[in-house]
Each structure stands twice: as C-alpha cells, then as structure tokens.
Amino acid sequence: MLFILFLLAITLVVPISVSTVTAKKSDYNTIQSGLIIDSAGNPLTLGYDEFGYNYQAHIFNGLYDDYDRKHGGNYPGVHLIMKWNDAWLSNKDHDFDGLLDRHYGFDSYIGSGAWLTNHIWGTNPDGTHWDYSVKIVAVPSDAYEVGGIWYEHDGTEIGPAIWGSFAIIQEVINDPSTGEHSVSYLSPAPAGFGYWKP
Ligand SMILES: [Ca+2]
Q: In terms of C-beta density within 10 A (0-12 exposed, 13-18 middle, 19 or more buried), how is residue 179 classed?
C-alpha cells in the first residue's frame, strides 16, 4: 500500500482573500482571538476541530482523507498523524492577514528550520496492518540540489527533494503484505530536528 508515498499530507490552511479589520492591540493575533480563519472562512478554534487539526498544538490526528479539511476521499480507513513546528505553520498571525503564518521571520521556507512529520497507517486487504512514517525538513539557506537530492554546503547529503524547498531526512515502512520492514531512507546528515534550526 505504498501509494501513500506520493500522497504525503501537508498542513492546510488555504490562503483566501479576506479583509480583516483588526486593531493592532498586540504584535500578533492568536487562535483564541477568533480572527484567524480556515479556507472556508470559519474561525479556527482551540483544541481539535472536526477534521483532526489542532493548530494551537501543531498536530493533526485524524483520517488521511480529512487532511484537506474535507470529509471523505479515496483512502477510507487510513489514519494520519502530522506534527509540525512553528516555522512550518505557526499558531499565530503576525502579519494580520487572518491566516496562520508560514516560515515566520523568513522570506521563504529555506533556512527557516521548518519541519513536518507524517505517520500514516491502515489495513491491507489481507487484514495485516501497514504503516509509514516520514520526516521532512526545510533545507538550510546554503544547501544545494543536484539530481533531486539536497546537499549541505560541505557536500553531506541531506535527502531527496520534495516540494521544492524541503528534503526527506527519514522514511520508515512496515508492510507485512509486501514483506517490507525497513528504514527506507535515513539521511547521512543528522535526522534530529534540532540540527536544522537556523
Ligand atoms: Ca498571517
């Protein structure tokens, strides 16, 4: 069931155009303020929402099909836990555009120290359980890419490129239906997230 390799979930707060009239009482808005919205224009709330997002806690725990903030999809019964840090998707809105900030304090994700994990699992037709997990980091500003692989400035491999500015640093697959039980990728560079802080 490794179709999932091509379907890594991303945290989703789709930008929409909105005119937020906000008195700047502080340097940022919080989820508690009720002034930060989702793609449908609904205010984000504290705790888990109906899809499985807890933006305040930087976690999604729900069905894979719901990560796009729409119920249902092509992978019923597949579960997903995503975790991310504040650089990936903040729980605050510093620029008062009504959206949670991405790569706050940086022009882009590159060099921001952003990271995301996905843990995805489900049941095979034969009743066995498969699971897949992956760690993804934004590459440092002095990284370079050759042939779809990101490298540190000193030539140390970071990992396969994904979504442009990111690299996969660790990937683990367990699937009894195919006999796969392996760390399918482990970066030669440190796989701990602290290493990637700017
Ligand atoms: Ca914002």
A: exposed
Q: What is the mean pLDDT of the chain?
A: 86
Residue with tokens 């990936």: 88
Distance 3 CA to ligand 1 centre (A): 33
Compute, in angstroms, the gap from residue 115 CA to the centroid of ligand 1: 18
- Spacing of C-alpha 98 from chain mean position: 20
- Tell me, in angstroms, the distance from the centre of ligand 1 to residue 139's CA: 22
Kindly state the helix (H) or strand (E) to which residue 171 belongs, with its residue range.
strand 166-175
How many whole angstroms from 184 Cα to the centroid of ligand 1?
36
Would you state the pLDDT for residue 18? 43
* 65 three-class SS: helix
Centre of ligand 1 from the C-alpha of residue 128, in Å = 43
For residue 136 the two structure tokens come to 């993804």
pLDDT in tens, 3-44: 444 445 555 554 444 444 444 467 999 999 999 988 788 899
pLDDT of residue 100: 93
pLDDT at 161: 95
Distance 109 CA to ligand 1 centre (A): 15
pLDDT at 49: 93
